[in-house]
Amino acid sequence: MKLYAVSVDESGSCDTPPPLSPSDQEGLGLSDSSCHRALRCAEVLENVLEEFNSCDLNDKRNFFLDVALVCKAFLDPAMAVLWRELPHLSPLYRVLIPDDVLKTLTACWISQPDVASQLEMQMTRSIPSPGSGRWARFMHYAAYVRRVLSIELNGFETELFRHLAGRNNSRSVLPSLQIFKCEIPRHQTAYLHSLLLFSSPTVHTLELVSSDSCIVFLDPAGSPHHSLTGAIAQAFPSLFSLDVDLRDPPPEDVLEFTTGLAALKQLCKLKLQWPGCALEPHHLRMLTSGLPHLASLSTHINGFSDAHAKQLDRVLAPSLRRLKCGGTWDDIVRLPHALECPALDELRLALHRPSTSTLLEALCECVRAISGQVFAPRLRLLGIFATAAGLARDYAAGAAQAPQRRSIADILAPLAALESLEDLTFEIVYPRGAMLLVPLCSDDNMRTVAAALRRAGRVSLAVRQDPNMPRLYGRTQSSESPSTPTLHSLVHFVTMCPQLTSLALAPVVVPPLMLMIACKGMPTCSAPNLRELHLNADGQATPTNASRSLAIYLDKLFPNLEISACRLDSDIKDALRDARKSRVA
């Protein structure tokens, strides 16, 4: 029997493949190395299978035939797994093109990038033609590829892929490709034609990324097939998910882009990450009316405060189930007044750049609108992430009226009207010296919130100060002391939220006297369903001498905690494990 790159001992086990040569390792990450080793193993199996099929030893032929059938049965599923996902196309190219030839072609491109004819001639001479064994092997492996993590539509790789597609009768050499990520270059429309090289009815997920500014959506010809959305619709008619991460596209082209998305009739998931450029109400109306199956949308918004002032009609989004929006306080708090989403299941809001000191009053109004029966009556998950960063430091020097102090109960109590709400995350970050912008979070307020969330399974509440924000002076200051929850708040959630499996509160204050009193009268209630507990996530440490007492108290209150999944101080975790062992023993 021949000697292979991977040796097989008498027991049938395979030794570790030999280390990669420097040429193999150059430019390859861990994923590339794994693909290369997998290719070596696959080659061994194929060689073994060929030798078994050619064996003419009559006395052992039946045995060899059984082994060959086992190898063949293993080979196809193994290859499907090994080639299903690639970091990029280099491992696939190495099946067709030897490393030395690939380096020569790359050097030719680097030295003369503008002389495409010379590169084409080099490729014609160096790359095996269709009908050869290498080409058949290349196409065989390419048919397994379902996902490519990164494809750059610029430079040598694009020219190489273009050449291979030309040899394949202008068809993509990745006939089963379903998911891939494209990195598109700056100020070029040529990438649109490169994108068409990957045309396939099997592609259902596409991610377009650019780290450069001023991406050009439309070329001067103005043809619909010279626009980004036109190219996408032409190349991928069955697209299900689209993620576009561009840097500052021209505002005048946003309307053209959203209009062009209507050609993707099968699109269900859309993620638009455009820093500095947000969707306005009429853009959103075009999306929801032009994409009948749109179920998930993630974007930034703008102009919704003006639409509310003009009392425009609500935008109906009948199929939308997941919505993630970022924007200014003024726009986000008006969003529930501008939309009607009867099927909405998940809502995540990110508020930034406040323009007024009445932040909490606006937030109260926003949550009341969310809790109404028009915006999203079936809401199951709600996430609100708000920051007071950007508020003018000296705004209080003017004639502005001092804001009224609000509590977390004022903000979240209306959520009791949402009977389907199971998951709530509420986080607000404020600068130093802004006590009037901080909701009160006393135990009584937490009791009201717990009563409103009686059907919830997961609750995360965080009201924290960011020391990196500029300090505010003037009307935001207050002589009142900070209001924070204590151990009593934990008891409130235990008694009022029986379905709770995860609870996060930050910060939670544990005064030594309260802890001593609490430990003398251990809680009579417990939350057997709770698995995750996050306390003091802002980094406030519990005194070491109180860790054991607190751990005993928490173990009584939450007997089935998964300690490794909890976010607690390390000394409390250790004490909690000791308390668990003592209780079980």
Outline of this structure?
With about 575 residues, the chain is an alpha/beta fold. It is built from 21 helices and 16 strands. Strand 14, helix 18 and strand 15 form a beta-alpha-beta unit.
Which SSEs are present, and which pair or pack?
Blueprint (H helix, E strand, L loop, with lengths): L21 H4 L4 H25 L6 H22 L2 E2 L3 H7 L2 H13 L4 H11 L6 H10 L4 E6 L3 H12 L11 E5 L6 H7 L8 E9 L14 H8 L5 E7 L6 H7 L8 E5 L7 H10 L5 E5 L3 H6 L5 E2 L5 E7 H10 E2 L5 E7 L6 H13 L9 E7 L20 H5 L10 E8 L12 H10 L5 E8 L21 H10 L5 E5 L5 H9 L11 E4 L11 H11 L12 H15 L1
InterPro entries: LRR_dom_sf
Protein name: F-box domain-containing protein
Distance separating the two termini: 61 Å
State the name of the first-level CATH class of the domain at 303-395 and 402-483: Alpha Beta
What's the overall average pLDDT, rounded? 77
Quick one: how many beta strands?
Answer: 16
Largest sheet, described in full? 14 strands, parallel
Low-confidence stretches: 1-31, 213-225, 392-399, 474-481
What is the share of helical residues? Answer: 25-40%
Strand content: 15-25%
Radius of gyration: 31 Å
What's the total helix number?
21
Q: Judging by the overall fold, what is the CATH architecture of the domain at 303-395 and 402-483?
A: Alpha-Beta Horseshoe
Can you list the strand order of the major beta sheet?
A: 1-2-3-4-5-6-7-9-11-12-13-14-15-16
Oligomer: single chain
**SS-based structural class?**
alpha/beta
The CATH topology annotation of the domain at 303-395 and 402-483 reads as: Leucine-rich repeat, LRR (right-handed beta-alpha superhelix)
Shape: globular
Organism: Trametes pubescens
Protein name: F-box domain-containing protein
Region (Disordered): 6-28
InterPro entries: LRR_dom_sf
